[in-house]
Amino acid sequence: MIDELEVEAGPLARWQVHWCDPRREVSWYAADPVLASLPTPAEWAHAHGTQMGQPVLLRADGWSVPEVNGFCASARVRNASAGTRRKYAFASRLAGIP
Length: 98
Fold this sequence. Notes:
The protein is of the alpha+beta class. Helices cover 34% and strands 14% of the residues.
């Protein structure tokens, strides 16, 4: 579902920018007994309005920041060009928002 592009956010932090691809099959997902009882990544993305190519940012500790990812999911970013979405994602990553 998500294609990873790992980038540096500073000397001590390592943020990751991911690009959503709800069509991507995750072969091991259904084999995991815990995940098998949950919606598939594609079902989850559809239910939450996640769109193809939407940026998703994760902090160095692997947690997401709802405010940053909410901005990435906003109409302002969704309606922007692919290049602008990419610039917003990397600018947010560089800001080092805790």
